[in-house]
Amino acid sequence: MRCIRRYRLSSFRQSAIWLVPVIAMVLALVVNVILREIDQATGWAWFGFGPNGSRALLAMLAASMLSFLVFLFSALMIAVQIASAQLTPRVIATTFLQDRPVRLAIGLIVFTYTLSIAVLGRSEEAVLQLSTAVCVLSSLVTIAMFLYMIDYSLKAMRPVSVIERVARSGGKVVHDVYPDALDAKRDVRRSVWTTRPPAPDRTLVHEDTSAALLAADFRWLSDTAQAVQGLIELVPRVGTFIAVDEPLFHLYGGAVDLDPGSLRNALAFGRERTLEQDPMFAFRILVDIAAKALSPAINDPTTAVLAIDQIHRLLRTVGKRHLDTEAMLDESGRFGVAFRTPDWEDYVTLSVSEIRQYGATSVQVVRRSRAMLENLKASLPPDRWSPLDVQLQVLDRAVTRAFPDPEDQAIAGVADFEGVGQVE
User: Fold this and answer.
1) Contact predicate 208/248, CB 8 Å
2) Beta strand residue intervals within 142-218, DSSP E
3) What are phi and psi of 383, to 5 degrees?
4) Euclidean distance between CA atoms 109 and 112, whole angstroms
5) In terms of Cα–Cα distance, which of 56, 304, 34, 44 is closest to 159?
6) Rounded to 5°, angle at Cα 101 from 98 and 105
7) Which end of the chain is more exposed for a tag (fewer CB within 10 A), N or C?
């Protein structure tokens, strides 16, 4: 189960914001020892720091770095609060906690602070010239990084930046979960589960605590089931919340004798959905951003249109791929693992319904939604049209209800990629 272990390790590494500062502290202590040995071995005296001046300088640098650290964490807390209030709380885990520049800035400040304290503690008997110079250089780099972080944070907090980032991550997950494009040759072993036994021979229920299913090691489950000539059915879909004592696995044939602990260890659970194996979560975040923007308290339909832009992009990506990946079976089609994934109608319904309900009175939203649906019909094969036609019909009725005047209905009934702008 190396795949699920890698997932758990990666998830821990990405969500633990304290990990980088701790590593920076340890690295600073190691660097301090190395620099002190070099100082003592070479008698470095190029910089000419005096005892009093060196100690005063190091003390000032340490105090400055501590102030920078407090200020940076305060700014991050404000950014998180603003993003949660203006966009959606779901962006915290998927953006800010995984932001590499933020982690690098925190780590650099902690490194400089720890190194300055460590060098200051060894500067009583003799001036450590090289160590002091490295502290000064590190502080200059930290100041430059701090100024960069101010510019970076202001840009990263913009709704368009957050929306693009979520969509980019969602597109990657779509390609991972649905590996076959419509015009590519499919692996027939990754297809719709057609041979469904009437009843499972054994059912394993979820234990421990209620949580959301974040990921599963489908390759290991498939290989294990094939090895014992059995079938493993994963009951909940990735991203679904599952309570204690609810069915987790249905086992058939030789899979009945598999160790329940090993099967459960092939799954990862958590309190909140993640993007790694759950492409629907990317759509959920974007829809939440649009819904929050359309709330009476915010009333920002332009941000909703920005979210629809990226939903449109993701829907086109999903629509051009085979979505019937519900099993990983052997050549006979009987042994392996079966699981559930969203279908095309699920994606269309999630992407359109709530935004239409909340934005039915916004000319921008209904025009941009219509442009998305009509463009998808023009760019996707006919077997994808049915859910799009349904949504177009519902949109027409919503416009009729929301705009009683014929003139407004005519304006709202136009497809417009800019919301209210250029008509295409």
Assistant:
1) no
2) 202-205, 211-216
3) -70, -5
4) 5
5) 304
6) 115
7) C
Residues 272-311: pLDDT tens digits?
888 888 899 999 999 999 999 998 888 899 999 999 999 9
pLDDT in tens, 128-167: 788 888 888 999 999 898 888 888 877 777 888 888 988 9
**CB-based burial label for 392 (10 Å; 0-12, 13-18, 19+):** middle
Longest dimension (CA), the chain: 88
Give me the numbers of helices (H) and strands (E) for the chain, helices first please.
Answer: 15, 8
Cβ within 8 Å of residue 330, ≥6 positions away: 189, 226, 336
Indicate if the alpha-carbon torsion angle 284, 290, 292, 294 is positive or negative: negative
DSSP characters over 41-70: HHT--SS---HHHHHHHHHHHHHHHHHHHH
**C-alpha distances out from residue 17 to 20, 92, 112, 156, 381, Å:** 7, 12, 18, 18, 44
- Segment 240-266 shows an average pLDDT of 92
Do strands 211-216 and 327-329 pair parallel, antiparallel, or not at all (unpaired)? unpaired
At 103-121, the pLDDT tens digits run 888 899 999 999 999 888 7
According to the model, what pLDDT value does residue 234 have?
A: 93
Look at residues 318, 293, 333, 315 and name the one whose alpha carbon lies nearest to residue 375.
Answer: 315
Quick one: which of 376, 323, 319 has its CA closest to 186?
A: 323
Count CB neighbours of 351 within 10 A: 29
Name the amino acid, one letter, at 176: D
Strand partners, 270: 212
Tokens (6 digits) for 386: 């049915």
